[in-house]
Specification:
Number of strands of chain A: 5
Strand order of the largest sheet of chain A: 2-1-3-4-5
Largest interface: A-B, 26 and 26 residues
Distance between the termini of chain A: 44 Å
Oligomer: homodimer
Strand content of chain A: 15-25%
Number of helices of chain A: 7
Largest sheet of chain A: 5 strands, mixed
Shape of chain A: globular
Helix content of chain A: 40-55%
Radius of gyration of chain A: 15 Å
Structural class of chain A: alpha/beta
């Protein structure tokens, strides 16, 4: 499965939309390798929806369901390592590959906290991270260090210390 | 957090609806301890929706979002141990408690494959299983041993051997 930096940049654009909207900056692109088209794009919308499960990946999953794409042709680009929930969903759906940026040390399900794909017997998905990771970390820092009213209070306090 | 066997029986009723509809028999009830009302009920709808993420718990989560309930007042009853994805979602949402029936040896996120709640720093949810577990196992066996066209082929073959 070939990585495309152009598609990762599109995911970063989605992440920028998230931060502009007061959300943790995570953006995702779902690319169909059969049609060679982006079939879903989305960002984290946890604060806007008050729903802790509305991660970028889940917002994209909903879009693919209304398309004609088959899950095994989908390659996912996301600037931050998918969490345990999202990694498990992507394995369940049997997407072809997931390319991600920086690690997610608190919630990451692709190696940071645990590697979901090693635990699920049905896994067929390739997970690979480390793409543009410094930029991904910088974007997260921008959110948590800023005076964003949606950032967790303890993080804002730390940013001031 | 007090367990209610009546509510677990309601979850089993949902699981029966699943099996009647050709789905893996998993049913869930979301109970609001503040209003003392059931605010969501649902079953697995993976086959009907062709979406591997439509587990009973996610179908219930969507219903709670249209209610006035607060997640910290929700107690979940489900006949089978939530998978890694669902357990992670329920921790993210900070539901009060999850009572489940039998273990889920292949996908369980509450101790069988791993215990998601021990891994996520934000965990506030009580997970407790083993309620009516023999009945829960029997219901799963009924699905996998039957000639249900939606049961995995290898399981159907095994059932015949």
């Amino acid at each position: 499965m070939e990585y495309s930096d152009d598609l990762m940049l599109e995911a970063f654009q989605e992440a920028q939309l998230a931060i502009d909207g007061g959300e943790v900056p995570v953006g995702a692109i779902f690319f169909d390798i059969e049609s060679q088209k982006i079939v879903a794009r989305g960002c984290n919308s946890v604060n806007a929806t008050k729903n802790a499960t509305r991660h970028a990946e889940f917002n994209c999953i909903d879009q693919v369901l209304t398309s004609t794409s088959r899950w095994e042709n989908i390659v996912v680009y996301v600037n931050v390592e998918p969490c345990i929930m999202c990694a498990s969903a992507l394995v369940d759906l049997k997407v072809a590959a997931v390319f991600f940026g920086c690690n997610n040390d608190r919630f990451g399900g692709c190696g940071s906290v645990l590697k979901v794909s090693d635990l699920l017997p049905s896994n067929r998905t390739l997970f690979k991270g480390g793409f543009r990771q410094l930029e991904a970390v910088d974007l997260l820092k921008k959110f948590y260090k800023g005076e964003n009213p949606n950032a967790p209070i303890e993080k804002r306090k730390l940013a001031r210390d």
